[in-house]
Amino acid sequence: MEESIIKEKFGMNVKLNRRSFLKMAGVASGTALLAACAAPVAAPGEPMAEDYIVNHWTWLSASDAEVWGVHIDNFNEAHADLGIQIERLEVSSNEYKTKVLAAAATGQAPDFGWADAGERADFISDGVMIPVEEHLAEAGLDWSDFTALSVAKGRYPQFNNQLYHMPLDAMTWQLEINLDHVEEAGLDPDSPPTNNDELLEWSKALSVQEGDTVVRSGFLMTGSGLHVAFIWGLVAHQMGFRITNDELTEVCINPDAAKEAAQWTLDLFDVHKVATRDVSDRYKAFGTGEGSMFLTGPWTLNGYIEQGLNFSVEFTPNIGGELATRLSVGSQEMYIQEDESRYARSAQALTWLSDESFLWTTQGRGAACRQSILDREDYKEHRWEYRQPFVEGMEFATFIPPKLKAAPDFKYYTSPNLVHRIIDPVWQGDKSVDEGVDELCAAWEELLAAE
């Protein structure tokens, strides 16, 4: 019989599934270095000999990571004489979940860390996360100031509708366009593509080939992994495909739309020849001019603006018939601690990071989740020509992953996961569209049955 490591540590009635248990048991010994980052806490009634350290883990890696680092530094400067500091540790997104689970198993979980709200049902089920609403309210956070959508994204109906995330920014995916390439192709920058026909027309005009080789992608793609999967998933959603029904009782609603979208994706490479499979770093490719149009998120803005790239941001085109784009709410989550007194200090730090998130939501990443920031007169003065589509695109950001315990395997935009293992061979020509979609639907059906 398996015994939950977390239950042993915390005396909680937590049931850990076999997959999570094995992951933690296999890597627990490798978390010693990460656990060493946790500062010692004084015994009750004893004074702190040094600053109280709140441990924060982050998987941010694009140019948004630099702005987040500044935000953390600003907190530490503001609290230099107040006895509390945040220690930030960068952890690879591919390893984040495993390392948090392992750290929690040894009683050394970070205090809080990054998450996409609504996509952590597995952590909650495993007893790794705690509800945040009351802790943050006690620290002075004004929940009434948050947008309704951002808060709703962090609630889980299957866990008594409790709130497990503090929203920081709301992100949509929109179309970035290299304006130098547009001028070179003789296109009108004031009339960007808004539908499938226009997108393909622009992609062909912007692409550059040497013989049969695409050396500049009119529409930037990758040949495997999360980006090509995301583009396929978005187009499938626009064409009417749904990963699950609203009740979360069935998977693969309208699979023919998913197959049509997969063929549309393949045609970008093989029929229209507006993309190449040889792109490994999509961010670098767009920044160096190897791609002309890039469907991505606001975390890219700071880097491209700082490097002086001549580009614009436009709304995601309606490719499949129903205008939609991806919604993600960047949030902070609090992890289980042996010493429950740590929650109050974490809540104090998180409240400040939210109250002072103007910098983060104007230079770091997505739209503010605090109405008081959205209402500021100067909110639209900071790079608004780039940020506007990401903010106003919230109106059609309806492409949202389901809130399931196996959520990572139901997502297109994460790596590596079930979607990529099954679908990547389709993009490489080693599996047919029908085989790939049917196999993925069967795997999703098994996962849903295990929920």
From TrEMBL:
<dbReference type="Pfam" id="PF13416">
    <property type="entry name" value="SBP_bac_8"/>
</dbReference>
<dbReference type="InterPro" id="IPR006311">
    <property type="entry name" value="TAT_signal"/>
</dbReference>
<protein>
    <submittedName>
        <fullName>Extracellular solute-binding protein</fullName>
    </submittedName>
</protein>
<dbReference type="InterPro" id="IPR006059">
    <property type="entry name" value="SBP"/>
</dbReference>
<dbReference type="InterPro" id="IPR050490">
    <property type="entry name" value="Bact_solute-bd_prot1"/>
</dbReference>
<dbReference type="InterPro" id="IPR019546">
    <property type="entry name" value="TAT_signal_bac_arc"/>
</dbReference>
